[in-house]
Amino acid sequence: MQTQELKKAFGDRLKEHEPLGRYTTFKIGGPADLFFDAKTRDEFVTAVSLGRSAGLPVFILGGGTNILIGDRGIRAFVIKNSTQGITIRGVKGSVEQGNAKRTVFVEADSGVPMNKLVRFTIEEGLSGLEMQLGLQGRGGGAVFMNSKWTRPEGYVGDAVFQATIITPEGAIQSVSKEYFHFAYDYSAIQKTRDIVVSATFALVQAQKERLWEIANSSIAYRRETQPQGVFSAGCTFKNISQAAALTAATPQFTTSAGFLVDHAGLKGYQVGDAQISPLHANFIINLKNAKASDVVELIEKARAAVKEKFGVDLEEEIVRIGEF
Ligand code: EPU
Question: In 3D, which of 314, 323, 155, 143 has the Cα closest to residue 235?
């Protein structure tokens, strides 16, 4: 590996065999061959560029929220994205059905925690992301996954206006929302492998108090229905499509993966220290020292039980990374 340039640029901050569990919400995962924590946009872009010039596979680690890293770690240069900038880029006025409407463009570095961004936009009286309060993870990951909330329904991609990306060839480009082809749990960069440097959101001016009400109701619903303050990677499986629910005739035609795992009798089921949450069956919790292999075994157990009971094939929402 040609890592001299990286060593020259980052010195002691470039680490070898860095254990990754601590950087994930699951607290699971083996070491990265090489690791660097990028604090600014410049450092981030430089790290990607130098890593690629050195011929290394590059993996970007954001909030570490939706992933399961294998026990043997990642054979790559892992760049932790700790970029933090949020900037108001401009304002556009228009008139819609006789009412004045102001759209404000907010640019956030891809390493900004979603909760920080959501709070910022609410405090600025800007609507579009308020229902996402409580969403773990960072801007880049939320765009990559098109993270969502269902009450009221809102996808992070809905609010995206444009983004700055690094293409696999190393070009820095500005692309519009359409580029991402956002859909449920999907954006095109999952295929193109572009890296998001920053995203600009188009948000509409609204009453701050009303935005806080919506945000607080999201938080309250999460507290009531989802495990909190535990080591978890969020929802394990994607919800199924309405067509699949109709075909399989699930109870009340539910599309909820959590409901199906629960009613397959698996709430609280454990493999090693990995447990299906007794509160919401679509969450797997690391009770203390769970291994990635325990989580994988639990995922397969839940998938098989749901297939047997409901005839439904569940697809994973958690992304598996590295060697298991
Ligand atoms: N339910 C059960 N048992 C369970 C879990 C749920 O019976 O163990 C029932 C609930 O009582 C409810 C129904 O299933 O009647 C739906 O549950 P919930 O409202 O919790 O929504 P969900 O469909 O399970 C989705 C998203 C969540 C998101 C919530 C709220 C998916 C896979 N899940 O869950 O997303 O937080 O709605 O918007 O789309 C995530 O992406 O990591 C995630 C957790």
Answer: 314
For residue 239, give the ligand 1 atom closest to its CA: 32
Tell me the pLDDT band of 95, cut-offs 50, 70 and 90.
confident
* Res 1: pLDDT: 54
% pLDDT > 90, the chain: 96
- Does the pTM surpass 0.85? The reply is yes
Q: Separation of 79 CA from ligand 1 center, angstroms?
A: 31
Average pLDDT over residues 54-79: 97
Q: Which atom of ligand 1 is nearest to the CA of 279?
A: 8
Which residue of 259, 275, 317 sits with most ligand 1 atoms within 8 Å of its CB, as the best mutation to test the pocket?
A: 259
Strands 74-81 and 31-38, by their bridges, are: parallel
Q: For 301-324, how does the pLDDT look when each residue is reduced to its tens digit (9 = 90+)?
A: 999 999 999 999 999 999 999 999
In this structure, which residue's CA is closest to atom 11 in ligand 1? Answer: 259
Amino acid letter at 283?
F
Q: Which of 114, 228, 256, 261 to mutate to test the pocket of ligand 1 (most atoms within 8 A of CB)?
A: 256
Q: CB within 6 Å of ligand 1 — which residues?
A: 149-151, 225, 234-235, 238-239, 256-259, 262, 280-282, 317
| pLDDT at 34 (0 to 100) | 98
Residue 97 has pLDDT above 90, yes or no: no
The Å distance, Cα 16 to ligand 1 centre, comes to 39
User: Ligand 1 mean position to 146 CA, how many Å?
Assistant: 16
pLDDT band at 96 (very low <50, low <70, confident <90, very high): confident
